[in-house]
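Let's sit down with a protein and look at its sequence and fold side by side. Which protein we use is up to you, so please pick one and set it down. Label the sequence line and the structure token line clearly, so we can match residues to local backbone shapes. Go ahead whenever you are ready, and we will take it from there:

***
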Amino acid sequence: MSFLTRRTAIDGDVGHTAGSGLRATLGWPHLVALGVGAIVGTGIYTLTGEAAGLAGPGAMLAFLIAGAVCAAAALCYAEMATLMPRAGSAYTYSYAVMGETTAWVVGWSLILEYTVVCAAVAVGWAGYASGLILQYWPDAPKALMAGPHAGGIINLPAVFIAMIVAGLLALGTRESARVNFVLVIVKLIALAGFIALALPAFNGAHFTPFMPHGFWPHEVDGVKMGVMAAAAIIFFAFYGFDAISTASEETKNPARDLTIGIVGSMVLCTLIYMGVAAAAIGAMLPADFAKSPEPLAHIIRELGHPTAAQLIGLAAVIAMPTVIMVFMFGQTRVFFAMARDGLLPKALSRVNAKTGTPVLVTLFTGLIASILGGLLPLGEIVSLANAGTLAAFIATALSMMILRRKEPARPRRFKTPLWFITGPFAILGCLYLFAGLPSKTWLFFLIWNAIGLLVYLAYGRTKSNLAKS
């Protein structure tokens, strides 16, 4: 039963072959852009209205609370990522601190998170793209723009965007990071434009009462209301910064750049979210935009700026591929790390000599996301990504706390401030949010990991580098 607890070394790895290392090409601006690219996606364009409907003006407080939980997790990630600057994120930390079996569960959960998010965002992007296609080509075959669950044959736009992003990532980490950086700038300009247009209509009376539905969650007509209910939903607009830690091995100066990337992107996104929420509520009563599927564009349109509203909607479309890009990047690096450790077939850990990227695993990931996005209904399983995220956050915080107790004297390039408070706060916050997930999600998550454990027992348990060493 040694496979339950056998661990990799914190300072090195067993069984890694020559040429299986990733090329270090990223600086802190690339990492901040990766974080912002993942975090500032469709969530800010859609969840602002939903949060305002649940908490009223208290949605601003909900953004702050959700940001605080994620910030605590981000601080734990910053310590672990700089301590172990290798691909794999929470999987790698768990392997070195809590053992192979726990690491497998965390890695398997991360695979679920990243794959489902990539496919779901691809489908969301395809919805906007299909609308544009039909606008200019009314006779386009609709059966090729929807999966079988929606009466079509295959969702080709979703397949297209997933493979395009995979191809871009395969070309090179630095090249894809540059494209992401440009698209992130476009998104931030759009949000700054929204705030600039909304502020002249600001009315402080819209913030009274500040918490019309109270602080703690309570059901009203079958719907959970209150600031904390809104925070549980808003949380899902924040995650994505963990993908930065998967780039540890490709970072030029991990000690400095990872800290700036992880903490900086979280602080920046929290300020952006709170600023957008304040401008939205100040310009219009929450009840008037809470039900809109495009609340920010709706507000600007009602303020008499139809062209600007269209541009904000366009920015939402631009935002989606950056989310796919960052999460697919994270997925390939987790796959890569698990394959390099022998838990998955070694072929997936081959690095292309020219691009410095794991081309095979990148294209394989793009293919899986394309199949899911092109053929399957994703509505019911998207929340599985949230379960995978929370599991990774908890594992990282636990790894940080265990190492602080076991090896307090180990040199650390970044130290989580007040670790004995920050770590438990991150864990308890994530457990609270996990408890708020639908019971069906819990069941699917358990089924997914039961399948994963069977795969591990049949393959990884005997094929891993540690099993052979």
